[in-house]
C-alpha cells in the first residue's frame, strides 16, 4: 500500500529567460546529506537547500552573460560541487566559496550533457556526443580529445548505477523517431548499443531504470499511458552488434482515446512506481496529476491533482517527491508499504480510516477526485449489504455490537457536522484511544478539516479542546489543514497558534507574519492567565518579574520602602537613594508574549518570501520586537555556550537573523523614528563591545595554541603550580 502524506513548498522558482518562458528547473540533485538538495535553475544560479527547514544554505551564480547548461551535482567523495556553464566550462567549488568566478575552472573540448555522481566512486561526465569520462581522468587532461560515439542522435535521458562495485551509465537517444539505448561500463571500458522496438501511434515520454542481480531493467512510459518493461544483461566482455530490445507491458495507466503529455516516471520500490503527467482526453479539460501505482497488482494506490500545473519534471529522494507546481518547487512526502493483495484492492484491515481508495488500473483519471470523495461511504454501504445477505442472524448481531462499540472515521465525520462540542470531544477521545489506523496522518487530517469547515460556517462553534488534542498527536502539518491557523487567528487563540508554530514544519511566511503581528498587538495584561507554554522562557526570565517591576522602581530609603517607613515608629528620615534599574536588564514584554514570540523565532522561513510580509508591521511593533530581540541577545551573551538551554528556546543565530531581517525590512523607518535612536545606539554599543572582546581573544589565540604545542605532557599529580611566560 502507498500513500501521499504531507506537502510543503521548498522555494519559489524564477522565470526562465526568454519571451513567454515560465519558471523552470534545470536539475535537482541530492546534497551531501539526505536533508539537503542542490537545485539548478534554467539560468545562472545553483542553490543548496535544507529540506526540513525549507531554507537555502548557499547560493552560487555565474556571470551575467553566462548560463549554466549542466545541472550542479555534489561529489560525495570530496564534498565539492560541480557544474558546467556555456556547455564546455567546468566549475568546482566548496561550501565556503562565494564567487564562482574565482573557483576552479577547466575548459573542455566537447559539450557536456550531464554529470552523474555516485557514492564511493568518481563522478562520471557524459558528453553530448555519447563519450563518457571519469572526472579524475578529465581533470588530468582537460584538453584531451573527446570522441563522438553517436551520430546525428540526441540524448534524451541518462542515469548511472553501481553494479558489482563498478559504475555503469545508461542513456537513451533519439533519431528520426527511432530510440536507442546505450549502456557504458567504465572499468573495463565497454559500450553496448540497443534499439528500442517501435510503437505505433505513441512515443516514449520518460525513462527510468534499476539494476538487480546483474540484470538491468529499463522502464519506459509511452504517450498512450503504457509502461513497458525491458530487460538487458550487459555482461558480455565484447559488445555485440546492435540488438533490438523487445518490451513487455508492465502497466496501463489510462483508458483509450486519452493522451499522456509531459510525463515523468519514477521507481519507488520493487512493486510501486510514480507517474507525473497531464492527461488530455477531449472534450474534457486536461488535468495534471501525481499518482502512485502498484505494478504487481495493476492498481492505482493514490493520486493528487495539481491545479496550478507542472513542468512534468519529477525527482524522488529519501521518500520525498520534488516537483514544480505553478511557480514553486513542491515537496510531497510519500510512504510505500509491503505489497499485498489485500492492500492493493483496499481490503486491508481498517483501510476505511485511511481516506484513500484504490481502483483498477484501467481507470479514467478525470473521475478520480469525485470518486475519492464518495468512496468511503459507498464502499462501507456495499460491504454492509453484502455482509447482511451472507451471514447468519447471530453473526449479524455480533457485527452490530462491534460497530456500536468501535467508532469509525466515517461515523465521527458525520457526527462532527451536527453534534454538540461536548459530544464531539467525547467521541474524538474514544476514537483516538481505540482506533487502529493504517494511515494515521491522513485520518487526522480528515477529522481536523471537518472541524475547521464547521467553524467557518458556524461562528459559534469552536471546539478548542478537540483541535488542541489533534495537534498534539503530532500527525499534522499546515498543508493538511491550511484553514486551521486562519480560524485560530480569527478567534485570537494564541495557545493554538503557538502549538501550530512549534509543530508544523511548513507554515507559510505570510501566516507566520500574521501570527507575529497578532502576538505583538495583544496587550500583556490580556495574556495574564492565558494557557501558554512557558518552557522556552523559564531558562532566562523570571515569570514573576514583571509583577514586581513597579515595586523595584519605587524610591527606596535606607533599604526600606516608603510604605514601611511610614509604619516605622522612628522619626528620623534618611536621605533617599533611588534604586536605578537598567531597562536593558528587564524584558520589555511579559513572559506569555515572550513565549509566543519565541515560537515565531524558531519557525522555518525563506528570507525571500518573509521580507515583504515583515513590512506590514507597524513602527511601534517593530521597535517592541527589536527591544525583545536585544534583550534576548544580551541574555544569550551572558552564557558561556551562547545559547539558552532547552529545546524550545531560540538560538543566538535565530535571534541575530530575525534582528537583521527586521532592520532590512524597516531600516528607513527605524532610522527616522526618535524613539528608536536610543535602541540603535544601545545595539551599536553592545555589538562594538562584543567585537572588541573577540578581537582581544584573537590576539592571544596564537600564543595559547603555541603553548599547547610546546607544553610537555607530564603527570604532575593531583596538584601543581606552573608559571608560563608570554613573550
UniProtKB/TrEMBL annotation:
Entry keyword annotation includes DNA-binding: no
One MF annotation (Gene Ontology) recorded for this entry: RNA binding
Annotated compartments: Nucleus, Nucleolus
Boundaries of every Nucleolar protein 11 N-terminal domain copy: 1-335
Nucleolar protein 11 C-terminal domain: residues covered: 410-726
InterPro entries listed in its UniProt record: NOL11, Nol11_C, NOL11_N, WD40_repeat_dom_sf
Domain of life: Eukaryota
Protein name in the entry: Nucleolar protein 11
Annotated organism of origin: Terrapene triunguis (Three-toed box turtle)
Amino acid at each position: 500500500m502507498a500513500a501521499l502524506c504531507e506537502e510543503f513548498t521548498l522555494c519559489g522558482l524564477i522565470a526562465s529567460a526568454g519571451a513567454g518562458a515560465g519558471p523552470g528547473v534545470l536539475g535537482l540533485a541530492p546534497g551531501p546529506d539526505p536533508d539537503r538538495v542542490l537545485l539548478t535553475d534554467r539560468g545562472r544560479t545553483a542553490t543548496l537547500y535544507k529540506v526540513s527547514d525549507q531554507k537555502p544554505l548557499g547560493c552560487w551564480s555565474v556571470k551575467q552573460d553566462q548560463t549554466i547548461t549542466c545541472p550542479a551535482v555534489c561529489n560525495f567523495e570530496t564534498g565539492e560541487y560541480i557544474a558546467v556553464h556555456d556547455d564546455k566550462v567546468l566549475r568546482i567549488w566548496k561550501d565556503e566559496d562565494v564567487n564562482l568566478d574565482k573557483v576552479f575552472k577547466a575548459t573542455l573540448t566537447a559539450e557536456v550533457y550531464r554529470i552523474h555522481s555516485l557514492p564511493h566512486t568518481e563522478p562520471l561526465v557524459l558528453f553530448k556526443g555519447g563519450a563518457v569520462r571519469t572526472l579524475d581522468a578529465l581533470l588530468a587532461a582537460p584538453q584531451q580529445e573527446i570522441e563522438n560515439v553517436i551520430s546525428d542522435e540526441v540524448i534524451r535521458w541518462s542515469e548511472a548505477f553501481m553494479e558489482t562495485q563498478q559504475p555503469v551509465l545508461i542513456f537513451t537517444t533519439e533519431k528520426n523517431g527511432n530510440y536507442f539505448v546505450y549502456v557504458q561500463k567504465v572499468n573495463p571500458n565497454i559500450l553496448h548499443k540497443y534499439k528500442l522496438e517501435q510503437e505505433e501511434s505513441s512515443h516514449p515520454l520518460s525513462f527510468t531504470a534499476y539494476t538487480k542481480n546483474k540484470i538491468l531493467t529499463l522502464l519506459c512510459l509511452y504517450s498512450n499511458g503504457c509502461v513497458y518493461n525491458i530487460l538487458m544483461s550487459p555482461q558480455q566482455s565484447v559488445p555485440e552488434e546492435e540488438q533490438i530490445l523487445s518490451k513487455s507491458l508492465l502497466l496501463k495507466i489510462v483508458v483509450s482515446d486519452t493522451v499522456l503529455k509531459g510525463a515523468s516516471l519514477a521507481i519507488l520500490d520493487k512493486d510501486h512506481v510514480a507517474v507525473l503527467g497531464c492527461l488530455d482526453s477531449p472534450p474534457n479539460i486536461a488535468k495534471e496529476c501525481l499518482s502512485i501505482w502498484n505494478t504487481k497488482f495493476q492498481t492505482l494506490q493514490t493520486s493528487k491533482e495539481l491545479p496550478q500545473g507542472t513542468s512534468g519534471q519529477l525527482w524522488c529522494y529519501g521518500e520525498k517527491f520534488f516537483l514544480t507546481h505553478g511557480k514553486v518547487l513542491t515537496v510531497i512526502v510519500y510512504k510505500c508499504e509491503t505489497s499485498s493483495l489485500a492492500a492493493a484492492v483496499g481490503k486491508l484491515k481498517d483501510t476505511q480510516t485511511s481516506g484513500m481508495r484504490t481502483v483498477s488500473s484501467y481507470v479514467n483519471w478525470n473521475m478520480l477526485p469525485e470518486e475519492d470523495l464518495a468512496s468511503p461511504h459507498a464502499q462501507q454501504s456495499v460491504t454492509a449489504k453484502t455482509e447482511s445477505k451472507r451471514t447468519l442472524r447471530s453473526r449479524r448481531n455480533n457485527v452490530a455490537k462491534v460497530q456500536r462499540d468501535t467508532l469509525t472515521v466515517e461515523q465521527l465525520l458525520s457526527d462532527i457536522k451536527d453534534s454538540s462540542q461536548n459530544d464531539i470531544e467525547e467521541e474524538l477521545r474514544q476514537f483516538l484511544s481505540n482506533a487502529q489506523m493504517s494511515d494515521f496522518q491522513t485520518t487526522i487530517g480528515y477529522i481536523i478539516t471537518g472541524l475547521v469547515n464547521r467553524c467557518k460556517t458556524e461562528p459559534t462553534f469552536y471546539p478548542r479542546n478537540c483541535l488542541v488534542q489533534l495537534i498534539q498527536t503530532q500527525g499534522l502539518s499546515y498543508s493538511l489543514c491550511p484553514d486551521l491557523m486562519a480560524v485560530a487567528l480569527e478567534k485570537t487563540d494564541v495557545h493554538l497558534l503557538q502549538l501550530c508554530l512549534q509543530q508544523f514544519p511548513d507554515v507559510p511566511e505570510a501566516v507566520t507574519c500574521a501570527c507575529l503581528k497578532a502576538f505583538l498587538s495583544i496587550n500583556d495584561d490580556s495574556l495574564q492567565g492565558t494557557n501558554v507554554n512557558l518552557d522556552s522562557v523559564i531558562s532566562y526570565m523570571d515569570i514573576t518579574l514583571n509583577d514586581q517591576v513597579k515595586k523595584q522602581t519605587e524610591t527606596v530609603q535606607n533599604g526600606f520602602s516608603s510604605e514601611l517607613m511610614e509604619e516605622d515608629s522612628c522619626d528620623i528620615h534618611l536621605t533617599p537613594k533611588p534604586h536605578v534599574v537598567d531597562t536593558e536588564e528587564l524584558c520589555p514584554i511579559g513572559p506569555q508574549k515572550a513565549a509566543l514570540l519565541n515560537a515565531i523565532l524558531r519557525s522555518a522561513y525563506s528570507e525571500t518570501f518573509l521580507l515583504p510580509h515583515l513590512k506590514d508591521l507597524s513602527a511601534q511593533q517593530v521597535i517592541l520586537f527589536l527591544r525583545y530581540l536585544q534583550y534576548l541577545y544580551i541574555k544569550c551573551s551572558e552564557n558561556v555556550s551562547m545559547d539558552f538551554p532547552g529545546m524550545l528556546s531560540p538560538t543566538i543565530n535565530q535571534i541575530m537573523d530575525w534582528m537583521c531581517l527586521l532592520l532590512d525590512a524597516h531600516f528607513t523607518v527605524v532610522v527616522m523614528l526618535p524613539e528608536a535612536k536610543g535602541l540603535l545606539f544601545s545595539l551599536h554599543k553592545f555589538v562594538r563591545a562584543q567585537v572588541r572582546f573577540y578581537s582581544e581573544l584573537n590576539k592571544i589565540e596564537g600564543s595559547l595554541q603555541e603553548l599547547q604545542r610546546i607544553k610537555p605532557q607530564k603527570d604532575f599529580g593531583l596538584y601543581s603550580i606552573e608559571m608560563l611566560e608570554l613573550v
